[in-house]
Amino acid sequence: MTPEPDQKAPKAAGAAGSKTAGSKTAGSRPRAGVPVWRTGKPDAVLAAAVDFARTAVEGIAPAWQIGQHLGARSEGDRLVTHLFESKLPGYLGWQWYAVLTRNSRSKVVTVDELGLLPSEDSVLAPDWIPWAERVRPEDAQGDEAAEEASGAGAPSDAPDAEDSSAADADDAAADDAAADADADQDDSAAEAD
Fold first, then answer.
1. Average pLDDT in the 31-45 region?
2. How far apart, in whole angstroms, are the C-alpha atoms of residue 171 and residue 115?
3. Residue 63 contacts residue 85 (beta carbons within 8 Å)
4. Does 48 have pLDDT greater than 70?
5. d(CA 172, CA 7)
6. How far is CA 87 from CA 51, 62, 68, 116, 127, in A?
7. I need a labelling partner for 15 at 20 to 30 A (CA). Which of 37, 93, 115, 192 fits?
8. Partners of residue 150 on adjacent β-strands
9. How far is the C-alpha of 100 from the C-alpha of 116, rounded, in Å?
């Protein structure tokens, strides 16, 4: 992969004051991965077209989902991106964007691209808070009130422990009585023979 002509390494220190085409000074280093022509002031006509950009974003999202204008940044020669706050539920911290462009010597603004992008804050998890600090006293009181209303934590349709042990004892007694009755029948049948 060859570097772009505007991103050549700076010349020797003796030529630091001289200007080169496409860069500010030969002594300043361009940022890695960002072409030099993308670093500059936004086009004045495109940067002033905030209402046009908002109207364009309203074409893909309802107006209530679009928040305040966050800024405009230059993406190149006569190419500006306007960013708007997202109020879409589940997408807090995201930004609506509208990329605007125009022809050379023309005041007619056109939309190049629209969409929704995450910001640096939206893709990071919130700071971790220990459990003891997250639970408030009123949270525990709500749980206790719910347990009392349902009968000390046991579901209302489930039998109590005492009731189930009594039912088990009754079943065992019935089984014993049935076994005794079967034995008595066997004994009486044997005597009849």
1. 63
2. 70
3. no
4. yes
5. 91
6. 18, 10, 10, 11, 22
7. 37
8. none
9. 15
Residue 42 binned pLDDT confidence (cut-offs 50, 70, 90): confident
Distances (CA, A) of 38 to 42, 48, 120, 158, 192: 9, 19, 20, 70, 113
**Helix, strand, coil shares of the chain as percentages rounded to 5?**
40, 20, 40
For the cut 90, the answer to whether the pLDDT of residue 109 exceeds it is yes
Which tokens in the block code for residue 132? 């003891």
**Going along 60-126, which residue ranges are E strands?**
66-76, 79-86, 94-101, 110-118
CA angle 13, 14, 15 (to 5 degrees): 90
- From the list 104, 34, 120, 26, the residue with the least C-alpha distance to 74 is 34
Say if residue 178's pLDDT is above 70.
no
Report the DSSP pairing between strands 110-118 and 79-86: unpaired
pLDDT at position 49 over 70: yes
